[in-house]
Design goal:
mainly beta, 6-stranded antiparallel beta barrel, two-stranded antiparallel sheet, 8 strands
């Protein structure tokens, strides 16, 4: 079993199988864009870990918020880490600090 989430108020750990561990979406703040936000494509490649292979995702970028919805679940990052948007050729388009994560197991509960 893997720890999926910590519930500090209930003093509990939420655990589940590896299949539930994936991250389906995340959002971030402190957005830095290299082209203006309106020029960033709605689908691009995303990295949330240094050695991760870039993953396809739908993105929404404003001046202060970056929202990412992955095409398929990815191994999660931690809040406070950097999410990077990349062009197909590997150029960095934008980055933001992750402040919210949606996990695959939450989608399974619905």
């Amino acid at each position: 079993l893997y720890v999926l989430e910590k519930d500090l108020e209930a003093n509990a750990l939420i655990v589940g199988p590896k299949a539930c561990l994936g991250m389906t979406a995340c959002s971030g703040h402190n957005v830095n864009t290299f082209p203006a936000p309106q020029f960033i494509p709605h689908t691009c490649l995303v990295k949330v870990r240094y050695r991760q292979t870039p993953c396809p995702a739908e993105v929404s970028v404003s001046e202060d918020t970056l929202t990412i919805r992955f095409a398929s679940p990815v191994f999660p990052t931690a809040q406070g880490q950097l999410a990077s948007l990349l062009s197909p050729s590997g150029e960095i388009l934008a980055g933001a600090l992750v402040d919210h994560i949606d996990f695959a197991y939450r989608d399974m509960e619905k």
